[in-house]
């Protein structure tokens, strides 16, 4: 699903994945061009780290939401978790194994992009909706 996500953000936001971690070269970051803030991070981790059965690795994507109460509701659904390896409360991790439909994943990418945008961009996006 990584490639589909990369195609989506390239088409919609003209963003290419960035690989900033020398210790984790397979972890792409998606970030704004202007403020360099991340709006998504994809990682492959073992299922057991998410509290799931099995030790095989799965891809997850961390995205930021605008409301911590929304986070608390979302993580009750299959395929969603509190942000893995991040202490901020507005981040969630989404399992990228087909549990969460691609269209839904795109919705959360869009939310994260808006929440992490610089002030001018965020206001512009909201006025277009």
TrEMBL record:
The keyword NAD does not apply. It holds the Pfam family YjbR. SUPFAM superfamilies: YjbR-like. The keyword DNA-binding applies. Keywords: DNA-binding. GO terms for molecular function: DNA binding. Gene3D superfamilies: 3.90.1150.30. InterPro entries: YjbR, YjbR-like_sf, YjbR/MT2646/Rv2570-like. This is MmcQ/YjbR family DNA-binding protein. It comes from Mordavella massiliensis.
């Amino acid at each position: 699903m990584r490639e589909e996500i990369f195609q989506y953000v390239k088409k919609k936001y003209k963003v290419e994945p960035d690989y900033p971690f020398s210790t984790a070269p397979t972890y792409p970051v998606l970030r704004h061009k202007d403020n360099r803030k991340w709006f998504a991070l994809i990682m492959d981790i073992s299922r057991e780290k998410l509290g799931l059965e099995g030790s095989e690795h799965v891809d997850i994507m961390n995205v930021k939401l605008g409301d911590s109460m929304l986070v608390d509701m979302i993580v009750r659904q299959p395929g969603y978790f509190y942000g893995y390896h991040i202490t901020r409360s507005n981040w969630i991790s989404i399992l990228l194994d087909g549990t969460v439909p691609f269209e839904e994943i795109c919705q959360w990418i869009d939310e994260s992009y808006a929440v992490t945008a610089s002030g001018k961009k965020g206001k512009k996006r909201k006025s277009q909706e």
